[in-house]
Design a protein that fits this description.
Number of domains: 1
Helix content: 25-40%
Distance between the termini: 72 Å
Number of strands: 6
Order of helices and strands: HHHEEHEEEHE
Number of helices: 5
Shape: rod-shaped
Strand order of the largest sheet: 4-3-6-5
């Protein structure tokens, strides 16, 4: 004789197992927060594009000579990058020069924040050229080196007859301190562009 209770037990076990499985999935989804900034392959692709854009901006500016000009765009009498709004660096706009134009064309209107930092050497804190705040965890960066010579003129002076060279400048050393060597090279700096989504 076959016992019919066995089929009911299997059905009950299947229903309990399904409830446990669904409950586990619901719990796991509620514990894991999925936000627009969560890591995913699409976010990695976007970050790679942003890194390539930052590298492209630096390459284009360096080839046009605008990157060095941007570092030298210092107004020595005002102790600031020429035309900076409130501080010695730019906060709401890009530098009013070719480097600023290249950077603005690349990043403006895309929901991205950009910092441009100047590192006088590997161990020193950077000087800010453009500062839009503290980068988020998904920030990417690219950098290029620029050689500044003692006789390079600062390009941020207001009057052409008051041209000042890097070695003669007083406050430029706050941004780029002079290198100790006396071979005609004022300093070799690293310009870094940091980009992140807002």
């Amino acid at each position: 004789m076959v016992n019919d209770d066995r089929g009911q037990a299997y059905t009950l076990e299947a229903i309990i197992a399904a409830v446990l499985l669904i409950s586990s999935l619901v719990f796991a989804l509620q514990v894991t927060a999925v936000t627009p900034l969560s890591a995913s392959t699409s976010n990695q692709h976007i970050e790679n594009q942003q890194r390539a854009s930052a590298a492209g901006v630096l390459t284009a500016a360096q080839e046009a000579g605008a990157l060095k000009e941007a570092v030298l765009f210092w107004n020595d009498s005002q102790d600031e990058f020429h035309g900076a709004e409130r501080m010695s660096f730019y906060t709401n706009a890009y530098p009013p020069n070719e480097f600023g134009n290249i950077t603005e064309r690349a990043f403006d209107g895309r929901g991205l924040a950009v910092n441009v930092l100047v590192y006088p050497d590997a161990n020193a804190d950077p000087s800010r050229m453009v500062y839009r705040g503290e980068p988020s965890d998904n920030a990417v960066s690219a950098s290029r080196t620029v050689t500044i010579y003692d006789d390079d003129e600062l390009t941020g002076t207001t009057a052409p007859d008051t041209a000042v060279t890097a070695s003669e400048a007083d406050s430029f050393t706050d941004v780029v301190p002079a290198d100790a060597t006396s071979n005609g090279v004022y300093n070799v700096v690293r310009v870094e562009v940091v980009v992140w989504r807002m």
